[in-house]
């Protein structure tokens, strides 16, 4: 079996989700399984040849995961299926991307899903596929948890997924990632990994009613809003995909860290701690690894501004320990997203401009206190969240943002060279917002695969 995933050319980072899935498959089924990292520069014809050589006379079984919305990979899946391969859609948003946009059957312009490109979809933990792979002759079991499949009469079979089981998350093979070299698959040496400490996001568990402004292009100067029930940030598809499933126990986290390759300095390679509030538990990770003689080179964190501020005390304690251990703590990304309160409100970030600025003040202060063991800036490779343009941009909001940039010298170390345009996945809350506007105003927005083109 092979799992195809999207990748950036020339990089050497791991793909935790697909590589865990490949590990689970190899450990629990008769299948060997590799992960193929496919960049946008890779030629489809070359990849098809590499897959043909890999599978030989056997019927290909190919999973697709972590695709980043890439249309070329969805088309590749359809081509492979047409040629007789079993194609499986898994990973983030696999259920909604297979099933299609809400009510697409009665709204012809909406995204119809990728059921034609894939034999079926599997949403949730990777171990759900074990029964299917143990019986490859039939490769069909309508009782499989997490299975999505259109039946012969056109109805959608959709089974609830099983709960996450930490036992399947404790072992990761990091030597199963391959890249394409001409028409050959070659091992890709990983220099940066990931460790899962939290599934989903606690903020996505907070349900509340919010009001989101109409796009300014519709009713500039008019106060029109859409009221919706929100979980998490309005643009976040993770909130819909996973919500919040909780934290891993420390033994699971330590087992994952132990699986990481060693670098040239005999320390574990740098890794991202996947946890939206990783600062709070950082001290415990550092303490427990040091007790077991596991030496760490660098831990990369993501953070929300409000939780970062609340966790200052525990973070300082962790940084003091990191300094004694010779471990660098890298703030890889903080989700500021905007520096205008109107836009932050419509994104439902749960923070204000003032919170973002307080977080930046603390980030810079920590650099002064821990210059060798705290990294956060653009120069350190950090990419902090800044979403622009958005549907709510006006001359005033942009002037507000530029004023903040100048006053606090944000382009110096915080703001990336290029902002990220607001991307509306069809299953996010903003997808509901767009559909409400379409139905209320008799307008349609274009779809680009899984994305709604609000512009």
Entry summary:
With 455 residues, the protein is α/β, with parallel strands linked by helices. Helix content is 34%, strand content 20%. Helix 9 (278-291) runs parallel beside helix 11.
Protein described:
The protein has 455 residues and is an alpha/beta fold. It has helices spanning 16-28, 44-55, 71-82, 94-99, 130-134, 216-219, 238-241, 250-259, 278-291, 305-310, 312-325, 341-346, 353-369, 395-408, 410-413, 429-441, and strands spanning 2-6, 34-38, 61-64, 86-89, 120-122, 147-150, 156-158, 177-181, 184-187, 193-196, 198-200, 207-213, 225-231, 244-247, 271-274, 298-303, 328-334, 374-375, 424-425, 446-448, 451-453. The strands form 5 sheets. A 9-stranded mixed beta sheet has the order 7-6-5-4-3-1-2-8-9. The protein has a 5-stranded parallel beta sheet with strand order 10-15-16-17-18. A 3-stranded antiparallel beta sheet has the order 19-21-20, covered by helices on one side. Helix 9 runs parallel beside helix 11 (312-325). The mean pLDDT is 95. It folds into 2 domains: 2-187, Rossmann fold (3-Layer(aba) Sandwich), CATH 3.40.50; 193-453, no CATH class. It is built from 16 helices and 21 strands.
